[in-house]
Purple acid phosphatase (Gossypium arboreum), 567 residues
Amino acid sequence: MVLAVESLNRLLHCWILLISLIFVVNGQFPTTLEGPFKPVTVPVNYSIIGQVTSLPVDDNPPLSPEIEFQPQQISLSLSSDLSSVWVSWITGEYQIGDDIEPLDPQSVASVVQYGVYKSGRNNLAAGSSFIYSQQYPNEDPNNYTSGIIHRVLVTGLDPDTMYEYQCGDPSIPAMSEVHYFRTMPSPPKDYPSRVAVVGGLGLTYNTSTTISHMAANHPDLALLVGDLSFADLYCKNGTLCDFQNCSFPQSPLQETYQPRWDHWGRFMQILTATVPTMVIEGDHEIEKQADNLTFTAYNYRFAFPSDESGSTLYYSFNAGGIHFVMLGAYVPYDKSSDQYKWLERDLFNVNRSVTPWLVAAWHPPWYSTYKDHYREAECMRVQMEELLYKHGVDIVFNGHVKAYERSNRVYNYTLDPCGPVHITVGSGGNEMNLTLEHADEPGNCPDPSNTPDRFMGGFCGFNFTSGPAAGNFCWNEQPEYSAYRESSFGYGILEVKNQTHALWMWYRNQDRYSVGADGIYIVRQPDRCPRRVSFSGVEVPYSLRGKMRLQCNFKIFSKRLIVPPCI
């Protein structure tokens, strides 16, 4: 009798889910199958435009530890293995000055105690620890040395399971509070329920609203698409400085206030200690030092599944039936670069029967119509867009521009039902104000000579050669590939429902967290859009990929996977 009741309840639950899915797919939101959509520009709400105010972290540091070596800035990130999760944290305080005694990483253990939720934390995992420095010339008294950064890989986890954990050194004792997280589900039929996406966070009151709204929507995974702490907008003495003089590579001194990273990490712990968070670098993470080292804080403060790529600046990972590709815009990306060759191998090895969805993310957008950063990443697009298109990338996420924009399906500036949907979500909070002006408005089109790639070099800002904007660098109206744009602070949530339907919702800070401002079902059409796999310069039908792969000889050379042409 009990078994019969349980079976009936499960059947009823399945029917409810099925009916709900049918309703939301067909009733509430438009789908990309109905596109392309007529471009929409939401008028600026000037009541939310004003001076951006930073959180008062110097007077009241958020979540400052109460006892010595108590873990702080706790964060989770996914590894390349579905059954493993990285746990990172910091103990001890940072130090400022040239003549200081750095903390000894070996003086504090790196331990995670964990177990399935409500079953006890009876498992132990140990890891490594280290420190880093941000150095200025001439024995500068403002040199920064971090606290002890700990990193532990927790292995042997079951999929789609809630775990509880504490981290720290149990021998002191100095352990964190108990935190919880859920592992990613198993592919191919299961997906993380909600993936939060945001860029341009900073540490302002707008950031606080964004993160509190995002946490209230209970994401299973978070993607941060660059411009994280904006520490480089602060001079080495901690004052907000003119970013044109201290943030760009041509500056003789790359000033940055590293304690801003510590304040940001403490604040973000309300999200990162419970939600695996994957990051990709933005231009504000470059932070060039006196010895020309770059991305030091970014590389040390986050854990990455970078074994296959060999770089923290570009990598990939799976989350249930989604394969994510995180690309670097500030590292060589041309067809002869390590990044491009890795990307070609990575995309070739994606099994769409296991991970049907293919999502790419990097910092500067290719299809932004705002005046700021307009066509700034054109050289990257020229080099990489065809490869992503041939492999059937479904969605692209970007930041950089301090506004929101969603494209129609597009490829090479042309409406294409097989092209990806490009989504810019760069207005998470930041230390500057929103981007308001569009390049297609009178007098706003930038001079093409002012749009070279200022980080990687090269100039690709040529006029359009076809379409409504032929002969011009900008359109004279909102381009047809731009479906929706709005200047508001906010973030987005991606909910993959099945192998073909994913719901994208963008939430504005001025609304309640449950109210979306822009929503659409992104629908895959694998039968209509067959993938054309490119490998070692040879293009083959996707259906032959498995046979081709069997005939390849893989060799390891200089710690890098070398794949010779297939025969």
Helices lie at 2-28, 205-216, 243-246, 259-272, 296-301, 338-348, 378-390, 545-550.
